[in-house]
């Protein structure tokens, strides 16, 4: 019940694009997709295959989960790039401000002009 309730909550937060379009298109060719459908229609003979068949209804969940994880990693990389750029810009600003500021040492040295 908890999983279903969380699924309903997630469904409400989906964008219109996510509700209408599939998360990603299959990378399989048409012939490979037909083979996969044929294999899924056959009754499983091994216990592991039977267990996996029981979890095929969670495929949509795993698609969403994987998509969220990929987006999380992409955002983390973007965040790190922005941090690096921010540090660089702060250093450039610090150098600029040091170049235009007048310090007491400058008054002690002879004026080059």
Automatic annotation (TrEMBL):
Locations listed in the record: Cytoplasm, Cytoskeleton, Flagellum axoneme
Any GO BP annotation: cilium-dependent cell motility
Organism: Trogon melanurus
Keyword Coiled coil attributed: yes
Regions that span the bilayer: none
UniProt KW keywords: Cell projection, Cilium, Coiled coil, Flagellum
Name under which the protein is recorded: DRC2 protein
GO CC terms: axonemal dynein complex
Coiled coil: 65-95
PANTHER family (alphabetical): DYNEIN REGULATORY COMPLEX SUBUNIT 2, NYD-SP28 PROTEIN
């Amino acid at each position: 019940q908890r999983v279903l309730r969380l699924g309903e909550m997630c469904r409400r937060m989906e964008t219109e694009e996510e509700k209408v379009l599939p998360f990603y298109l299959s990378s399989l060719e048409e012939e490979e997709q037909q083979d996969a459908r044929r294999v899924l229609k056959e009754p499983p003979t091994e216990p592991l295959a039977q267990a996996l068949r029981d979890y095929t209804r969670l495929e949509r969940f795993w698609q969403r989960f994987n998509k969220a994880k990929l987006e999380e990693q992409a955002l983390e990389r973007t965040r790190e790039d922005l941090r690096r750029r921010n540090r660089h810009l702060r250093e450039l600003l610090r150098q600029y401000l040091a170049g235009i500021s007048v310090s007491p040492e400058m008054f002690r040295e002879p004026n080059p002009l």
